[in-house]
Amino acid sequence: MFKKILIANRGEIACRVIKTARKMGIKTVAVYSEADRDALHVEMADEAVFIGPPAAAESYLLIEKIVEACKKTGAEAVHPGYGFLSEREAFPRALEAAGIVFIGPNPGAIAAMGDKIESKKAAAAAKVSTVPGHLGVIEDDKHAVKIADEIGYPVMIKASAGGGGKGMRIAHSTAEVAEGFNLAKAEAKASFGDDRVFIEKFIVDPRHIEIQVLGDKHGNVIYLGERECSIQRRNQKVIEEAPSPLLDEATRRKMGEQAVALAKAVNYDSAGTVEFVAGQDKSFYFLEMNTRLQVEHPVTELVTGVDLVEQMIRVAAGEKLAIAQKDVTLTGWAVESRVYAEDPFRNFLPSIGRLVKYRPPAESHVEGGVTVRNDTGVQEGGEISIYYDPMIAKLVTHAPSRAAAIDAQANALDAFYVDGIRHNIPFLSALMVHPRWRSGNISTGFIAEEFPNGFAAKAPEGEVARRIAAVAAAVDAVYGERKRQISGQMIGRPVVRAGRRAVWLEREEVLLDVARDGDVVTVAFVDADGKAGTAHRVVSSWKPGVPVWDGTIDGHHVAMQVRPMASGIRIAHQGFEVAVNVYTEAEATAARLMPIGVKADTGKKLLCPMPGLVVSIAVTEGQDVKAGETLAVVEAMKMQNVLRAERDGTVKKIHAAAGATLAVDALILEFE
């Protein structure tokens, strides 16, 4: 077994590999760019080597710097993680030439499967079901349109060397093919250094299901069940689960056997994933093979009990697989949410900055019960950089049933506190309680269909509103008692405020009676006639300053994020973020007379929605534009974002030029 390995990656996957290496008694070497000098993976590793500037093309993507770091530290093997060099055939070849072991598949398998065009040809030869499409080189946008017309709409335009949703576009018309082709090529070039794309038929109402395979260097290959990754936004996976609610045992076996056949056809000898697009009728077609560890591998680990990183290391060291297909069993259900530094209330645009507070839910494992796992590469005080993927963490829960795993995930998300940047936890929390998601009736179009206008802030209603109001009243009661104990406040005379409270959720008012006895706050909601209803027990040991209120309401576990604000608190729960004020009756009477503030009108300005680089300005001053027309393209975190006109108008003045680096809300142009 290896004594020391180097991880040619960063962030959460580097930390993940380090954890398993520690467990196996293997020393680790981290590499880092200037932007990652204080990163968690650098802190966790036994050694760390600086490899260059922040841009990945000048650091993490330079093979010679990785090889040099191995020689400098004496690392015997390299784990590539995912992304970066993980699927570059040249990387393991360079390592082999230097006498260093690659913890991944052999270069031949990467060459056969890493290129999506060649992999489809190999899949067809191995008699794996494939989607109709054009696998040859596409010359230009006119050629792309011709191919798309022949295949029939809608079509998928996809980077041959792609992954992670980069360099991918769905087109429903000739015009969308032309634009999508050029955008996909540009993203592919920027992200992978390879601008080749291919086109295939897009299956309507599809599901994304993938099979985890594991092979060794002795010809053994097994599959470890499936993962459902249908909850996607812009072709980027958001939530994954294992197993899939769609598959039955027969379909699972058929998909698994095809995946193994394909892996054996290319002599696959590590962990890898064969991805399929599946119809609602359980029909399935080969999509691609990822010759690396997947981002979502934890859900497979939790339902199978197999540490995939450990298996990769053992296989690379020449060991035979210790498990056969008959030994693989799927136990319980696992759900993973990708926590990203992006603002769901601003069309999920990237958010960068410092993690002023980072308090993930406590990791735990209860035998036969619920497991909470948080794979992360950040820590409090760390910074989310513009240069890399905006992932903060992967939150994973495992339980005996799908419903229990989802409930555990919902509770864990509510207890996940991040401050200093915007993040997608409110959106993930809303998904966990969405009836369609919970029913398992999903497809890759789920988010687009259920949130056609994006994710917008809205006022809580019904049971959720009552729950938030009850917790707000309990928090206010604790605050009130604390204030009355401040030195010099009417010593010797207890101050008792009236028990009735008016709780304002934004401007919606809820009346309730409140009484506190230690950690127990009793609340009773008041009806329109002023009569209090059934009393509810709200129990928590929460203290001021703790960012998450964790307790029970009538015995049911509840977690909410609480942030103090002027004359109130801000509560986040199940996708709702609401400003809450708790008033006495006298205070409420005065508050009702206060005017409502009006936000400034920015309708005649195009503001940069995220920190990023201006790739192009598509209009000129004095130009008339129609709603939907492209105004500018801004690149952030390796993604190109097209900014379009929301309504018809005339461009008055352009304030930014191509090549400019802008902050969030920086002015790009004005309309007359």
Number of strands: 40
Name the assembly state: single chain
Secondary-structure class: alpha+beta
Q: Radius of gyration, rounded?
A: 27 Å
Q: How many strands, which pairing sense, and closed or not: the largest β-sheet?
A: 9 strands, antiparallel
Q: Approximately what portion of the residues adopt beta-strand conformation?
A: 25-35%
Determine the N-to-C terminus distance.
69 Å
Strand order of the largest sheet: 14-13-10-11-12-15-23-21-20
* Mean pLDDT, all residues: 91
* Parts with pLDDT < 50 across at least 5 consecutive residues: none
Count of runs of 4 or more consecutive helical residues: 17
Shape: globular
What helical percentage do the residues reach?
A: 25-40%
Précis, in short:
Pfam families: Biotin_carb_C, Biotin_carb_N, Biotin_lipoyl, CPSase_L_D2, PCC_BT. By secondary structure, this protein is α+β, with helices and mostly antiparallel strands.
